[in-house]
Amino acid sequence: MGFLQKKKLRKEFDKKLIEQLMRQKEEWNRQKRLIENSLEPSPEVLYELKVAEAKYFFYLREAKKRYLRLGGWK
After folding, report:
1. Is the Cα torsion angle 38, 46, 74, 8 positive or negative in sign?
2. Are 46 and 38 contacting, i.e. CB atoms less than 8 angstroms apart?
3. Does the keyword section mention Coiled coil (predicted)?
4. Which domain holds residue 32?
5. Percentage of residues in the chain having pLDDT higher than 70
6. Which of 10, 28, 37, 73 could form a disulfide with 56 if both were Cys (CB 3.0 to 4.6 A apart)?
7. Number of compact structural domains in the chain
8. 3-state SS track over the chain
9. Does residue 20 form part of some domain?
């Protein structure tokens, strides 16, 4: 595999990673709002919040490892 091919694949993967990161952040925020608006959240909803949070921080760590920039942060 040539150097240019690797660079192209890396850019493509980085773009997908950023999209996933933003999508997961929206999901995590949606779950937090759902719990804030609930009088007594069910265990399933709390579980889904923890899963969404874990996924978001996983994508965030991956983006930081790859030195990706989103807006004004690394």
Report:
1. negative
2. no
3. yes
4. 14-65
5. 93
6. 28
7. 1
8. CCHHHHHHHHHHHHHHHHHHHHHHHHHHHHHHHHHHHCCCCCHHHHHHHHHHHHHHHHHHHHHHHCCCCECCEC
9. yes
Distance CA 13, CA 69 (A): 14
Examine residue 1 and state whether it is found in any structural domain, yes or no. Answer: no
10 Å CB burial of residue 72 (0-12, 13-18, 19+) is exposed
Asked whether the beta carbons of 34 and 45 are under 8 A apart, the reply is yes
28-54 pLDDT tens trace: 999 999 999 999 999 999 999 999 999
Residue 53 near residue 28, CB atoms below 8 Å:
yes
Q: What is the pLDDT of residue 71?
A: 66
Cα distance between residue 52 and residue 33, in whole Å: 13
pTM tops 0.70, yes or no? yes
